[in-house]
Amino acid sequence: MDEKQRAILDEIPRLRRYARSLLRDRDSADDLVQDCLERALLRLDNWQTGESPRKWLFTIMHHLFIDQMRKVNRRGEASMLPLEAGEVQASPADQLENVAAREIIDALQAISPDRRAALTMVAIEGFSYAEAAEMLGVPAGALMSRIARGREELRGLLEDNARRRAIRIVEPGPGRTGPIRAPMA
Protein backbone atom coordinates (compact mmCIF):
# COMPACT_ATOMS: atom_id res chain seq x y z
CA MET A 1 0.00 0.00 0.00
CA ASP A 2 1.45 3.34 -0.99
CA GLU A 3 1.62 6.52 1.09
CA LYS A 4 -1.45 8.14 -0.52
CA GLN A 5 -3.66 5.12 0.12
CA ARG A 6 -2.47 4.89 3.74
CA ALA A 7 -3.24 8.60 4.31
CA ILE A 8 -6.74 8.12 2.90
CA LEU A 9 -7.40 5.06 5.08
CA ASP A 10 -6.30 7.05 8.15
CA GLU A 11 -9.22 9.45 7.53
CA ILE A 12 -11.93 6.75 7.70
CA PRO A 13 -12.94 7.40 11.36
CA ARG A 14 -13.51 11.11 10.62
CA LEU A 15 -15.38 10.29 7.43
CA ARG A 16 -17.64 7.87 9.31
CA ARG A 17 -18.35 10.45 12.02
CA TYR A 18 -19.26 13.08 9.42
CA ALA A 19 -21.39 10.64 7.40
CA ARG A 20 -23.31 9.59 10.51
CA SER A 21 -23.96 13.20 11.44
CA LEU A 22 -25.39 13.78 7.97
CA LEU A 23 -27.46 10.63 7.56
CA ARG A 24 -28.45 9.47 11.08
CA ASP A 25 -28.40 5.87 9.88
CA ARG A 26 -25.33 3.72 10.49
CA ASP A 27 -25.74 1.54 7.38
CA SER A 28 -26.43 4.48 5.06
CA ALA A 29 -23.46 6.35 6.55
CA ASP A 30 -21.18 3.37 5.97
CA ASP A 31 -22.42 3.18 2.37
CA LEU A 32 -21.62 6.87 1.91
CA VAL A 33 -18.11 6.35 3.30
CA GLN A 34 -17.65 3.37 0.97
CA ASP A 35 -18.75 5.42 -2.04
CA CYS A 36 -16.46 8.27 -1.00
CA LEU A 37 -13.43 5.98 -0.63
CA GLU A 38 -14.18 4.28 -3.93
CA ARG A 39 -14.38 7.61 -5.76
CA ALA A 40 -11.23 8.86 -4.01
CA LEU A 41 -9.21 5.80 -4.93
CA LEU A 42 -10.38 6.00 -8.55
CA ARG A 43 -9.34 9.66 -8.68
CA LEU A 44 -6.21 9.43 -6.61
CA ASP A 45 -4.31 11.56 -9.13
CA ASN A 46 -6.52 14.56 -8.24
CA TRP A 47 -5.06 14.70 -4.73
CA GLN A 48 -1.86 16.67 -4.30
CA THR A 49 0.94 14.69 -2.64
CA GLY A 50 2.16 16.22 0.60
CA GLU A 51 -1.25 17.67 1.56
CA SER A 52 -3.67 16.05 3.96
CA PRO A 53 -6.41 14.23 2.08
CA ARG A 54 -8.95 15.30 4.69
CA LYS A 55 -10.33 18.37 2.93
CA TRP A 56 -10.40 16.56 -0.42
CA LEU A 57 -12.22 13.54 1.04
CA PHE A 58 -14.79 15.66 2.90
CA THR A 59 -15.51 17.56 -0.31
CA ILE A 60 -16.06 14.30 -2.18
CA MET A 61 -18.32 13.01 0.59
CA HIS A 62 -20.36 16.18 0.72
CA HIS A 63 -20.92 16.13 -3.04
CA LEU A 64 -22.00 12.48 -2.85
CA PHE A 65 -24.38 13.33 -0.01
CA ILE A 66 -25.94 16.19 -1.99
CA ASP A 67 -26.34 13.91 -5.02
CA GLN A 68 -27.98 11.29 -2.82
CA MET A 69 -30.37 13.87 -1.31
CA ARG A 70 -31.37 15.04 -4.79
CA LYS A 71 -32.13 11.48 -5.89
CA VAL A 72 -34.19 10.87 -2.78
CA ASN A 73 -36.10 14.13 -3.22
CA ARG A 74 -36.85 13.30 -6.85
CA ARG A 75 -38.28 9.94 -5.83
CA GLY A 76 -40.22 11.50 -2.97
CA GLU A 77 -38.78 9.19 -0.33
CA ALA A 78 -37.86 10.18 3.20
CA SER A 79 -34.30 11.46 3.16
CA MET A 80 -33.47 10.73 6.79
CA LEU A 81 -34.17 7.70 8.89
CA PRO A 82 -34.88 7.95 12.61
CA LEU A 83 -32.28 6.57 14.96
CA GLU A 84 -32.93 3.02 16.05
CA ALA A 85 -33.80 2.59 19.70
CA GLY A 86 -30.60 0.61 20.28
CA GLU A 87 -28.48 3.31 18.66
CA VAL A 88 -29.85 6.06 20.88
CA GLN A 89 -28.42 4.60 24.04
CA ALA A 90 -27.44 1.02 24.74
CA SER A 91 -27.68 1.43 28.51
CA PRO A 92 -29.06 4.11 30.81
CA ALA A 93 -26.67 6.97 31.46
CA ASP A 94 -25.12 6.98 34.89
CA GLN A 95 -23.72 10.48 34.62
CA LEU A 96 -25.28 13.82 33.85
CA GLU A 97 -22.59 14.49 31.22
CA ASN A 98 -23.70 11.45 29.20
CA VAL A 99 -27.30 12.66 29.21
CA ALA A 100 -26.24 16.15 28.16
CA ALA A 101 -24.05 14.76 25.35
CA ARG A 102 -26.93 12.59 24.11
CA GLU A 103 -29.26 15.60 24.13
CA ILE A 104 -26.76 17.61 22.10
CA ILE A 105 -26.38 14.81 19.56
CA ASP A 106 -30.16 14.40 19.29
CA ALA A 107 -30.63 18.16 18.89
CA LEU A 108 -27.94 18.25 16.20
CA GLN A 109 -29.77 15.49 14.35
CA ALA A 110 -33.00 17.48 14.52
CA ILE A 111 -31.74 20.54 12.63
CA SER A 112 -31.70 20.85 8.83
CA PRO A 113 -28.99 18.95 6.90
CA ASP A 114 -27.42 22.17 5.54
CA ARG A 115 -27.03 23.66 9.01
CA ARG A 116 -25.90 20.33 10.48
CA ALA A 117 -23.23 19.94 7.77
CA ALA A 118 -21.94 23.48 8.35
CA LEU A 119 -21.82 23.08 12.13
CA THR A 120 -20.20 19.65 11.91
CA MET A 121 -17.50 20.84 9.52
CA VAL A 122 -16.53 23.83 11.68
CA ALA A 123 -17.38 22.91 15.28
CA ILE A 124 -16.63 19.19 15.27
CA GLU A 125 -14.20 18.56 12.41
CA GLY A 126 -12.28 21.79 13.02
CA PHE A 127 -12.22 23.19 9.49
CA SER A 128 -11.93 26.94 9.10
CA TYR A 129 -14.92 28.88 7.75
CA ALA A 130 -13.11 29.34 4.43
CA GLU A 131 -12.28 25.63 4.12
CA ALA A 132 -15.79 24.52 5.08
CA ALA A 133 -17.39 27.01 2.69
CA GLU A 134 -15.19 25.74 -0.14
CA MET A 135 -15.95 22.09 0.64
CA LEU A 136 -19.70 22.72 0.89
CA GLY A 137 -19.65 24.84 -2.24
CA VAL A 138 -21.23 27.92 -0.66
CA PRO A 139 -20.01 31.48 -0.09
CA ALA A 140 -18.40 32.12 3.31
CA GLY A 141 -21.29 34.42 4.28
CA ALA A 142 -23.84 31.67 3.58
CA LEU A 143 -21.80 29.25 5.68
CA MET A 144 -21.63 31.70 8.58
CA SER A 145 -25.38 32.26 8.31
CA ARG A 146 -26.03 28.50 8.39
CA ILE A 147 -23.80 28.14 11.43
CA ALA A 148 -25.48 31.05 13.25
CA ARG A 149 -28.98 29.75 12.48
CA GLY A 150 -27.95 26.21 13.36
CA ARG A 151 -26.55 27.32 16.72
CA GLU A 152 -29.73 29.30 17.41
CA GLU A 153 -31.87 26.28 16.52
CA LEU A 154 -29.70 24.03 18.74
CA ARG A 155 -30.03 26.44 21.66
CA GLY A 156 -33.81 26.43 21.31
CA LEU A 157 -33.98 22.64 21.18
CA LEU A 158 -31.66 22.26 24.17
CA GLU A 159 -33.62 24.84 26.20
CA ASP A 160 -36.84 22.92 25.47
CA ASN A 161 -35.18 19.71 26.69
CA ALA A 162 -33.98 21.45 29.85
CA ARG A 163 -37.51 22.77 30.53
CA ARG A 164 -39.00 19.31 30.10
CA ARG A 165 -36.41 17.82 32.47
CA ALA A 166 -37.16 20.52 35.04
CA ILE A 167 -40.82 19.49 35.23
CA ARG A 168 -41.83 16.16 36.66
CA ILE A 169 -45.21 14.59 37.29
CA VAL A 170 -46.13 14.00 40.93
CA GLU A 171 -48.85 11.48 41.63
CA PRO A 172 -51.94 12.99 43.24
CA GLY A 173 -52.23 12.74 46.99
CA PRO A 174 -55.39 12.13 48.99
CA GLY A 175 -58.16 14.51 47.98
CA ARG A 176 -56.52 15.49 44.65
CA THR A 177 -57.93 14.52 41.27
CA GLY A 178 -55.05 14.85 38.79
CA PRO A 179 -51.29 14.91 38.48
CA ILE A 180 -49.37 17.89 39.75
CA ARG A 181 -46.46 19.37 37.80
CA ALA A 182 -43.64 20.26 40.11
CA PRO A 183 -40.11 21.50 39.53
CA MET A 184 -37.47 18.84 39.99
CA ALA A 185 -34.96 19.36 42.75
TrEMBL record:
SUPFAM superfamilies: Sigma2 domain of RNA polymerase sigma factors, Sigma3 and sigma4 domains of RNA polymerase sigma factors. Keywords: Sigma factor, Transcription, Transcription regulation. It comes from Mesorhizobium caraganae. Gene3D superfamilies: 1.10.1740.10, Winged helix-like DNA-binding domain superfamily/Winged helix DNA-binding domain. InterPro entries: PhyR_sigma2, RNA_pol_sigma-70-like, RNA_pol_sigma-70_dom, RNA_pol_sigma70_r4_t2, RNA_pol_sigma_r2, RNA_pol_sigma_r3/r4-like, WH-like_DNA-bd_sf. Coiled coil: none annotated. It holds the Pfam family PhyR_sigma2. Residues 102-154 form the RNA polymerase sigma factor 70 region 4 type domain. The keyword Transcription applies. Belongs to the sigma-70 factor family. ECF subfamily. This is RNA polymerase sigma factor. NCBIfam families: sigma70-ECF. The lineage of its organism: Bacteria, Pseudomonadati, Pseudomonadota, Alphaproteobacteria, Hyphomicrobiales. Residues 8-62 form the PhyR sigma2 domain. PANTHER family: RNA POLYMERASE ECF-TYPE SIGMA FACTO, RNA POLYMERASE SIGMA FACTOR RFAY-RELATED. It comes from the Bacteria.
